[in-house]
Amino acid sequence: MTLRVGIVGAAWGGMAHLPAWRAVPGVEVTAVCTSREESARAAAEKLGVERAFWDAHALCSDPDIDIVDLGTRPNFRLPWLETALRCGKHVYNASPHAPGWEGAKAIDAAWRTGGSVGVVDAFIEYVPAVRRQIELVREGYIGRPIGGTCHLNISLFNRASKQFPYNWFARGDAGVSGLRNNGSHALYPLLAMLGPVGELVADDRQVLPEWIYEDGDRVTPETTDTGNALLRFESGVVMQLQAGWAMTMHDGWLLDIYGTEGRLVSRAPTFPSAQDCTLEGLRAADKPNPHAPTQLQPIDLPETYRAEQGIAIDASFPIPPCFPMALSMRRMVETIEGKAGSALAAPDFARALEVERCQEAMRLSQAGRRWIALSDVV
């Protein structure tokens, strides 16, 4: 049986999601939706998709669509998501998962009631270097994890461009911020690696009070753009998290974790991808002089991490997010099909709720200037 996919959003949805879905066996993208009939019909023709929609609720309730792929603003997506889940659709949802904590709880209730498969488009854990890093931590490469640092810093509006399709990030009602967006993407692999967060303290602020465009136009953003948090996991691990979209000369991705027996570091110059994210590490047993400068060693990644049988693209695909995205989509399809031994869909909506719980704790911490226990976020 072929699963039929409808994509809401033709920009990033058409550029990255469409080729990723087309690389997954057992799937056909049959519909695309934009906000206007003219643009929807043009997108369907350009992308080679059979059906055009200009009402997302209609796509989300259409009986001939099995999987709904939702992009665009979190506040727009919330009612569409609820419609899709109410109609029994499986959902591949963008990150941030919801516009805020109340929306996240509403999505969770609808998802658990309906029993659909829900996956978030937060695919960093499928980037080969990060995937191997998570596995090595679980396998005990660094011993008992103690702490580390995670960064996801990019420059989006330091030199603002009107060609950038996400200038709505300035809107306070959209449900976005540097910490909500980049911070969420970082939290998904951290939770996969280290389990639940017990408590945290956070600082979330705006460092770019104006976005200045090439023609001199200026925008005063309503959103925060730079966040820092200290996360204390239930296991006792303490991680520093820095995430935002306003770092001058950004440093991209860093996940540096150490334990009683070693250290592992994944790095990428910007948002991590299969093409540019590297992994280094060293075990204490392999360093004769513990006081000498540390020279981390490259860690080879098995070829099976760069290509997977049945996926029509590999890590060299020219649109960098497509390969890890396709891996996430394939796990989703296998879960829907109930294949024996297949990996569960991930990151699923259960983890999405915990990421949103962390985000709400960060908001409360910022407001109260104090540590917040995750168990108090209800």
Automatic annotation (TrEMBL):
Protein name from the UniProt record: Gfo/Idh/MocA family oxidoreductase
Pfam families, per the entry: GFO_IDH_MocA, GFO_IDH_MocA_C3
SUPFAM superfamilies recorded: Glyceraldehyde-3-phosphate dehydrogenase-like, C-terminal domain, NAD(P)-binding Rossmann-fold domains
Alphabetized UniProt keyword annotations: Oxidoreductase
Span of domain GFO/IDH/MocA-like oxidoreductase: 135-264
Molecular-function GO term, any one: oxidoreductase activity
Gfo/Idh/MocA-like oxidoreductase N-terminal domain segment(s): 3-114
Highest taxon, organism lineage: Bacteria
